[in-house]
Amino acid sequence: MATVSPWIDRSTASDPNKPKFQNQEVLRRRYKWWTFLISSLNLLAIAALVMVCLYLSENWWLSGALIYLPQTPLVIPSVLLLGCSLMWHLRSALLNLTSIGLILVCLCDAHFSMKPFNEIPDTGRNVRLITCNVQNFEPNFGQVLREVARFKPDVLVLQEARQVPKMLKDYLEGWNWQHQAGLMVGSKWPLSEGKLCHTSPYDRPAAMAVQIETLGGPITVGNLHLMTARRGLTDLSVTSILDGRGPASVDHHAFLRDEEARQTHDFFVNLTGNSPTIIAGDFNMPTTSSIFDHNFGQYSNAFNEAGIGFGYTAPCRPVRFWLPEVPWLRIDHILTSPHFETLQCEAGEFNGSDHRLVTALLKLRAPNASQP
């Protein structure tokens, strides 16, 4: 005699739209509940991480370390949960889309501007500037020079430029140059003698400023190279965290780097006053850094104004835990005073140095033009 399975729901015989097995509906409800719960917890965790990284930043050793780690992998759980939401709980998709947006915009610092798609007027007041940490023109400065040739700059700002290759000055023949302490500024227009900013925290020159006579009038261009955050972060290990030496080292160097940035900022303020100013170079800090915000937040960031995507510039050297030659930080910046409007800004594509270059097309506003 045949036995009837206890799992068969006989009430479904008259209604083919009902599930054939009782546990199928139970499992579906469980999947919906778990999808909603995990998506909610993920959103709360991402929101907490954003608050810590943006508001504490380098004021706390842990968040100060987090902002220098790759942020894009954080979207992986949210993307997986988004797929689960589309299958089992459509309303949870909004939670996961919010998580992805928070990561990309707040932590990865993604930007999208329509300015690069606008027509560029040739008013004679435009300045094309390129900045790059050339790492003493290694390992392949030819790739950097290829991009310089593509963008055709009016001003070139280089850091870690100690032994200048002949190919650079041969290509930019007729340009005017200032070169001090590994900081180099070149211009097709006349420029003044460079003034060096020597800072006390690390007893080193952190910046150089020159005045350039552009077609639109004189401007001050600052070439800046601040101390790397690797000092302090490299002291972190399980043992050093447990005994407190690692966090103490991170906090100590964050204080020194903040003081170096403050002295550099004061140097430019005292030198330029209210004149048109561009500060470009290797800041060794992302825009999420509290040190960056405290000392340079009053300037306009060219990539924030007219960039598309992430604009990552470093590191381009091989790293054990990351994809080769794929940068994950935007620590090279072009900052401007309100006298300028940014029309275009983008990062380079080649890894001829440890940093990719950054270029911006800036328009010097007319003297009687209203400033934002």
- Which shape, going by the Cα principal axes? globular
Radius of gyration, in angstroms, nearest whole number: 26 Å
- Mean pLDDT across the residues is 91
CATH-defined architecture of the largest domain? 4-Layer Sandwich
Strand portion: 15-25%
Topology, element by element:
Elements: H1 22-56, H2 61-66, H3 75-88, H4 92-107, E1 111-112, E2 126-133, H5 141-151, E3 155-159, H6 166-171, E4 176-180, E5 183-187, E6 195-199, E7 204-214, E8 217-225, H7 230-233, H8 238-243, H9 245-272, E9 277-282, H10 290-296, E10 300-301, H11 302-306, E11 308-309, E12 332-336, E13 340-347, E14 358-364
Parallel strand pairs: 2-3, 8-9
Antiparallel strand pairs: 1-11, 2-14, 3-5, 4-5, 6-7, 7-8, 9-12, 10-12, 13-14
What does this structure look like?
By secondary structure, the protein is an alpha+beta fold. It folds into two domains: 98 residues; 248 residues, Endonuclease/exonuclease/phosphatase (Deoxyribonuclease I, Chain A), CATH 3.60.10. It has eleven helices and 14 strands. The strands form three sheets. Strands 4-5-3-2-14-13 form a six-stranded mixed sheet. Strands 6-7-8-9-12-10 form a six-stranded mixed sheet. It has a two-stranded antiparallel ribbon with strand order 1-11. Helix 1 runs antiparallel to helix 3, helix 3 packs antiparallel against helix 4 and helix 9 runs parallel beside helix 10.
